[in-house]
Design goal:
Elements: E1 13-17, H1 18-23, H2 35-48, E2 54-56, E3 63-65, H3 67-76, E4 80-85, H4 90-105, H5 111-124, H6 137-144, H7 159-165, H8 170-183, H9 190-195
Helix pairs in contact: 2-3
Length: 196
């Protein structure tokens, strides 16, 4: 007789007061949340809502993930937040706190894919504030271009250095390519262009 696997129970979403969550924030959380990050989280929550529940240990005595979101919610005046209790307790809960942050930091950003995604958002809604993505204006402009696009100097400076200095993305590079080509007779740019 074949046995069928039982579908695991999903954790139950529960609402907790922000003031209560503040009291159980993990005292050993090694992550520091600067004001600049909290401000970005506040703006994100105001635009997108609260989309990522706070993770708690088994007995709801420690926050395992979401410390920055709690601070942001408190700053914006929220009273209640959605939380999920995990099955974790003791050393396993503490290890998860570390693993959750460490593994997230190991991701890398594909700048070309990011530039395409940001450019697509701009095409869909030209008035959308792309800094709501967490990137500041300079970063957005270096990825997809914008009013702050750098102009090349009078040809006396190596365009390659300009590209590196401004962390110019491929879309910005392509848009400025006629100006780059104009300087190509004066500088050794071809090997760099081929690498792009």
């Amino acid at each position: 007789m074949a046995t069928t696997a039982r579908k695991p129970k999903a954790p139950v979403l529960e609402m907790m007061e922000v003031s209560a969550l503040r009291k159980i924030m993990h005292p050993g959380n090694p992550q520091v949340h600067p004001d600049s990050q909290i401000a970005k989280l506040v703006r994100s929550m105001e635009e997108f809502g609260f989309t990522n529940p706070i993770l708690l240990d088994k007995d709801a005595t420690k926050v395992l993930a979401g410390h920055g979101r709690i601070e942001a919610a408190e700053r914006k005046g929220d009273k209640w937040l959605p939380c999920l209790r995990t099955k974790l307790a003791g050393a396993k809960a503490d290890a998860y706190l570390i693993a959750d942050n460490k593994t997230a930091r190991e991701a890398r950003t594909d700048r070309e894919v990011l530039a395409d995604l940001l450019g697509g958002i701009r095409e869909q809604d030209g008035g959308f504030d792309l800094t709501l993505t967490g990137y500041d204006e300079g970063e957005v402009d270096s990825l997809v271009g914008g009013p702050g696009d750098p102009e090349f100097p009078d040809g006396d400076q190596d365009a390659t250095m300009v590209m590196l200095q401004y962390k110019m993305s491929k879309p910005v590079f392509e848009r400025l390519r006629p100006q780059i080509d104009e300087f190509s007779e004066k500088i050794e740019l071809q090997p760099f262009v081929q690498e792009f």
